[in-house]
Amino acid sequence: MNSIIEILKTRGFVSQCTNVEGLSKLMDEGPVTFYEGTDPTGGSLHIGHMVPYFAFLHLRQAGHKGIALLGNGTARIGDPSGKDSVRKMLSYEQLDKNTESIRSQLDRFVGFDDKTAWTANNKEWLASLNYIDFLRDIGSHFSVNRMLSFEAYKKRLETGLSFIEFNYQLLQSYDFLELYRRYGCRMQIGGDDQWGNIVAGVELIRRIEGVEVFGLTFPLVTTSDGKKMGKTEKGALFLDSAIITPYEFFQYWRNVQDQDILRFLLMFTFLSVEECKSLCESGKNPNEAKERLAWEVTTLIHGKEEADKAMSGAKAAFSGSGSGDKSAMPSVKLSLSNFQAGYNIVDLFYDTGMVPSKNEGRRLVQQGGAFVAIPGRNGDLSAISDLSAAIGTDRLNVNGELIIRAGKKRYLLILTK
Q: Which residue in 67, 196, 197, 417 is deepest, having the highest Cβ count within 10 Å?
């Protein structure tokens, strides 16, 4: 088996392949051009989108050439895969704006050099298609029965599949054909939810060009408790720092479950397999491995400076001491007069947005999940279980600051004015 396929398997990427032996043989013969497609249905990618791009970089490091296909054309229809209902139609202007934003995010991660990695935009060949000619030349190669056998369509038939969505598989297959003709692209990579679309493209090229191309998919990553990986209280773990701050991004990885550490180190970092395993050896503090995971992924997505800042902010939060860089922590400003009068603990957590209601605040306090610390003084967060407890100015440090925590993971720096 070709070494890069073994590497991808070892790191947990490989799920399905149309012909793994044939792909291995092709890779042994020389560099293979491959592609991964992303539709700009939003202005930012989230971490789930990035699984194929981590594999993209491993393939590139092994000498292969990658195309990041921006689906400005296919996004005009919307992929039904993994969706319970029709995607919201976006204006062409919005899709253009999203495309530029996503290209910029990918460029920071991949580093397009137009030699070993570059972008293409399927609007270039899809926007001007003649529908009659397309149906005649491309649609004639598709079996409706075969299309309906794929899981993505089978699921949507239960809730309703629009005709426009039914065309999506034809367009994605045509993308593969165009990339083969333009760049000699021989492989498409993507998430498992794209398996049906990828296989359709492989079959289309075989029928029209008489050439075998390949499809390789990766698992849709879930946490050890079965939840979709990358979900936060704000929703998906977006790469845009205006939606999810680098500190919040760092904290997500810092708080993963112990059972997920090794799997995420292997998949979301470029540390060697040996180092990943060493970090997770029995007897070692798992929090150290989590910090390393968080720092590595945040560096890859937001840069070393932001990762260092988030690490320092996290240390300040977890110790309660405020000895690190507190500027990275999420913060709110409250009036000093509230503390001078004695700030009721329930009101404090409600007013800062740490709980959605005062009933939730009372429940948090009663269950021992409300913590308060004085930054830079005692270094420890103490639980407040008295519903009538009043937080006074004696709880503020010399700068008028206070750190609070809700539950085990949610920290907030309070600034007074």
A: 197
Helix 286-302 and helix 261-268, axial crossing angle in degrees, nearest 10: 30
Three-state SS for 138? Answer: coil
Q: In what order do the strands lie in the sheet with 370-373?
A: 331-334, 410-416, 401-406, 370-373, 382-383
Rg (C-alpha) for the chain, rounded Å, is: 25
Residues in the chain, total: 417
Domains parsed from the chain with CATH numbers: 3-218 (3.40.50.620), 231-319 (1.10.240.10), 331-416 (3.10.290.10)
Helix (H, G, I), strand (E, B) or coil at 343: strand
Q: What is the pLDDT of residues 50-98, one digit of tens each?
A: 999 999 999 999 999 999 999 999 998 876 665 554 567 889 999 999 9
Q: Let me know the angle formed at the C-alpha of 390 by 233 and 322, rounded to the nearest 5 degrees.
A: 55
Other CB atoms within 10 A of residue 181 CB: 13
Residue entry with tokens 């060493």 = 278
pTM of structure: 0.82
d(CA 400, CA 409): 23
